[in-house]
Amino acid sequence: MAKVKAIRGMNDILPDVTPVWQYLEREVRAVLSSYGYSEIRMPIVEQTELFKRSIGEVTDIVEKEMYTFEDRNGESLTLRPEGTAGCVRAGEEHGLLFNQTQRFWYQGPMFRYEKPQKGRYRQFHQIGVETFGMSASDIDAEVIMLSARLWKNLGILDAVTLQLNSLGSNESRLKYKEDLVAYLTQYFDQLDEDSRKRLDSNPLRILDSKSEATQAILIDAPVLSDYLDAESEEHFTRLTGLLDHAGIKYEINPRLVRGLDYYCKTVFEWVTDKLGAQGTVCAGGRYDGLVQQLGGKATPAVGFAMGVERLVLLLETLNVIPETEKISFDLYVAAETKESQASVMQCSEMLRDSVPGLRVRSHCSGLKNINAKARQTGARLILLLQSNEAGVVGTLWNEAESFTQIPLNELSSVVAEQWQIVKQS
Ligand code: HAM
Q1: What are phi and psi of 149, to 5 degrees?
Q2: What is a single Pfam family found in this protein's UniProt entry (predicted)?
């Protein structure tokens, strides 16, 4: 019988890669907690209406990428394609937004029916940050600084570039849209097919068209920054000033518009050229109108989400994952002789008690080829138990040297010392 397979674009994350995911998640948590952010967990399924009203009816996500279905009550539900909408819904529903300042973060799977390729999947994972109740550009700067700190801690800061733009207020953008449409209409026949369709529905998206012909036409098109209202301009100038002061480099990209409708003022993307076509590892911006659009009181907000798969790929490509993070255990304990076999469990338990944090894996099958088998595990420390006339003793290997005939009562101190050495190497 044919075997059932996973759904295209929805990947198993296998045990050889999960240590890298855990490492990344741990580093992200540490940075978020150092900025005082609180975790929020939302459901994976929401009412379809929520995404239509927030992301926008005429976006690629809502038009063609959502996993939408009817549940048994005939209600239209959707697997979340992103986290911002659900976070606003949850915040509003539980009275966390009005007249308050909040800094939330979340992580989990998102679903989009996109064409799967390297860095683009149908189930993918985001770690996102959403802040509420702060209108000044300090908070825009903070979320960007927070992400920059994370790249620095992960050792990937040199491989990513920050692209920055301001979309201005909804009113100023409307005027810009009109002029852009008027300009592009003159060249209608030369535009690519997608851009022609977008001319009516979502003209700003034409700015990031991949077509060379369309890009050539755009060279002389009106530029969004010329249309910024005074308040947005001041907001943006203050933000770039704060980033300059923090030593964070950025490129102003007047064509950066983002694919979701809820943004205003600041938008940004962290992009790498190391992953091919899917190079945006983190993206976000300000969405001051969304809470109100979803039925709440006007509440300023800014946030971003990073793509976990893309970051894992980047860490692997740049080879910056510390060796100790690539394996789930530090010490492998096995018996070399039948007489010492009974001590493996006891000894492993003793080491877990006496060396806090040490990750111990015990060998639980036969003695055959035990030396080779222990080495194949990739453990950086191996402890083989033997027995002599005095009882059970151990031999400990640390990659470079070995310590033989260690009596049981000295094992903890020798293992603890060697573990420190291995960790630092
Ligand atoms: P987004 O740009 O749609 O924004 O997604 C954010 C990040 O998720 C992308 O930069 C990328 O790294 C990752 N990503 C998106 N789609 C895929 C995919 N199909 N496969 C793999 N990774 C993907 C948002 O989702 C907004 N909610 C971000 C935000 C939060 N803005 C304000 N707050």
Answers
A1: -65, -40
A2: tRNA-synt_His
Instruction: Give the integer Cα–Cα distance in Å for 360 and 374.
Output: 13
**CA-closest residue to ligand 1 atom 16:** 120
- Whose CA is closest to 44, among 60, 67, 26? 67
pLDDT in tens, 260-284: 999 999 999 999 999 999 999 999 9
Q: Which residues contact 323 (CB under 8 A, 6 or more apart)?
A: 380
Q: How far apart are CA 342 and CA 347, in angstroms?
A: 9
- Strand 391-398 versus strand 401-407 pairing type: antiparallel
Does this model's pTM top 0.85? yes
What residues form DSSP beta bridges with 385? Answer: 335, 394
List Cβ neighbours of 93 (8 Å cut-off, separation of 6 or more). Answer: none
Q: Is 89 annotated as a binding residue?
A: no
β pairing state of 280-286 and 264-271 = antiparallel
Read out DSSP for 371-395?
Answer: HHHHHHTT-SEEEEEEEETTEEEEE
Of all helices (H) and strands (E), which one includes residue 333?
Answer: strand 331-335
Domains of the chain: 17-169+228-318 (3.30.930.10), 327-424 (3.40.50.800)
Ligand 1 near 60 CB (within 6 A): no
148-to-20, 48, 88, 314 alpha-carbon distances in Å: 20, 34, 25, 15
